[in-house]
Amino acid sequence: AILVPTLLGYINKAQEEKNYSTAQTVRVAAQAVYDDEVGHGTAITKGDTINKDDQTKSGQSVTDLAGVDTSKVTDYSFEVDDKGQIISGTVTIDGATYTLASGSWTASK
C-alpha cells in the first residue's frame, strides 16, 4: 500500500518529463520549418509566429517533422525574433500547456 503512491508519483514525473521533451522537439521542428520558409524567400520580421497551421513549401507540417502524435500534441505557437530564432511559445500536450520563456519550459494544466 505504501509503494503504490510512490510508483504513481514516479509514473507522473516520467510522463511530465516526456512531455517537456516532446515540447522541445516541436520547438526544434518549428524552427526548421521557419528556416525552410526563410530559405524560400520569406522575410524575417520580429514577432513573426509559427503555429499549428504552418507548413513548409514542401507541405510538411511541424508535427510531421517532429514525429509526434497529433492526438496528443493538439496546438502550438512560437514567436520569432528579428534574427529568425524562436524566443518564446507554447505547446499543448494532453491538455496541459508547456510554455517556453527565457530559454526554459514551464507547465500548466
Describe this structure in words.
It is a single chain. By secondary structure, the chain is of the alpha+beta class. The protein contains 2 helices and 5 strands. It has a 5-stranded antiparallel β-sheet with strand order 1-2-3-4-5, covered by helices on one side. A hairpin with a 2-residue loop joins strand 3 and strand 4 (96-101). The longest helix is centred in the N-terminal third of the chain and has 37 residues, at 3-39. The mean pLDDT is 88.
Fraction in helix: 25-40%
Number of distinct beta strands: 5
Unreliable spans: none
Distance between the termini: 28 Å
In short:
The protein is α+β, with helices and mostly antiparallel strands and 109 residues long. Helix content is 39%, strand content 28%.
Summarize the helices and strands and which ones pair or pack.
Layout lengths: L2 H37 L9 E3 L10 H5 L6 E8 L5 E8 L2 E6 L2 E5 L1
Antiparallel strand pairs: 1-2, 2-3, 3-4, 4-5
Overview features:
109 residues; single chain; 28% strand; five-stranded antiparallel beta sheet
